[in-house]
Write a structure and sequence with these properties.
Blueprint lengths: L2 H7 L4 E5 L2 E10 L2 E7 L4 E7 H11 L7 H16 L9 E7 L2 E10 L2 E11 L2 H42 L16 H11 L1 H4 L6 H27 L3 H17 L45
Antiparallel strand pairs: 1-2, 2-3, 3-4, 4-7, 5-6, 6-7
Length: 299
């Protein structure tokens, strides 16, 4: 799993209110790019870009600003983090969103180095596998975890009832009658919950309650999902995985785009270390074998 994909999966959902639009969103930004996921509980949109897209879009939207992609990414991180954490945004940044066909455009306006800064997140419909990874599977895991928690609590209550019964049989009495409780009956409790509490508990609304109350459980489930995936990858042949990793890294280094803008500060490119051999290189020698002449019986 790539760094952006894994980093985005580990992020909690945030609730956004942009004009009349209520959205759930999560983002992960590095020096190499960003990944963004947005949902209105009807559809899910996604965008993941690298530094080449950052450079091109920055030139189109901010003709007066010249900076390396890492600077724009750092500024976007400074703008999005307060928004996703529901805190005050620096520089009085403003956000808005528009829906164009099946896409969602999240627009940002702020300042960078004293000049106006504009950015548009162009989010397209997320693939079914991405929706499953960030919503379906985590929500199923959370449901199973909560069900297990309910079973453990019911067992604990039954143990507490037995403990209270033992105290009562030993002659213990309550000093305050208001603390007295009835023995726990799981079936009657669940039946009462279905009738009285279920309608309110299932009120999803705009998703704000999910973000407020269950994000720690969501992150714990996604973290467990990643750990299971890493363990499964660890069971593979280490030589095969190492070879595949090195080939992927070499391919990324060879295909890394160069910045055509000479006025922007250039980032130093790490020099490739010379290959060190363990000893003098020897060419394989071919031994020429002299064929023996066949001798007949009377020669």
């Amino acid at each position: 799993m790539e760094e952006l994909e894994q980093g985005l999966l580990m992020q909690p959902w945030a609730w956004l209110q942009l004009a009349e639009n209520s959205l759930l969103a999560k983002a992960y930004i590095t020096k190499q790019g960003y990944a963004l996921l947005v949902s209105d509980l009807q559809q899910v949109w996604h965008e993941q870009v690298d530094t080449s897209v950052i450079s091109q879009r920055a030139k189109e939207l901010n003709k007066r600003l010249t900076a390396p992609p890492a600077a724009f990414l750092c500024h976007l991180d400074d703008l999005l983090c307060p928004l996703l954490k529901d805190t005050a945004c620096p520089g009085k940044a403003t956000f808005s969103c528009d829906r164009v066909a099946e896409a969602l455009i999240l627009r940002v306006r702020s300042e960078l180095s004293g000049l106006p800064f504009y950015w548009n997140f162009h989010c397209i419909l997320a693939s079914p596998s991405l929706v499953s990874q960030h919503l379906i599977r985590p929500l199923m895991g959370m449901s199973l975890a909560l069900q297990c928690q309910v079973r453990d609590l019911a067992t604990l209550l039954r143990m507490k009832d037995l403990e209270i019964q033992d105290y009562q049989e030993s002659g213990a009495t309550l000093s305050r009658d208001r603390l007295k409780t009835e023995p726990f009956e799981e079936n009657s409790f669940l039946g009462q919950f279905m009738v009285e509490k279920l309608p309110e508990a299932c009120s999803v609304g705009d998703g704000k309650r999910f973000v407020t109350n269950l994000q720690s459980l969501y992150m714990a489930v996604t973290r467990q999902e990643i750990q299971v995936g890493q363990k499964l990858q660890g069971t593979e042949d280490p030589q095969t995985s190492s070879s595949a990793s090195s080939q992927g890294t070499d391919s990324q280094l060879l295909n890394q785009p160069e910045e055509p803008d000479s006025s922007a500060p250039s980032l130093p490119v790490p020099e490739k270390e010379p290959t060190v051999t363990s000893g003098p290189t020897q060419r394989p020698q071919l031994l020429k074998v002299k064929r023996k002449k066949l001798r007949g019986l009377f020669s």
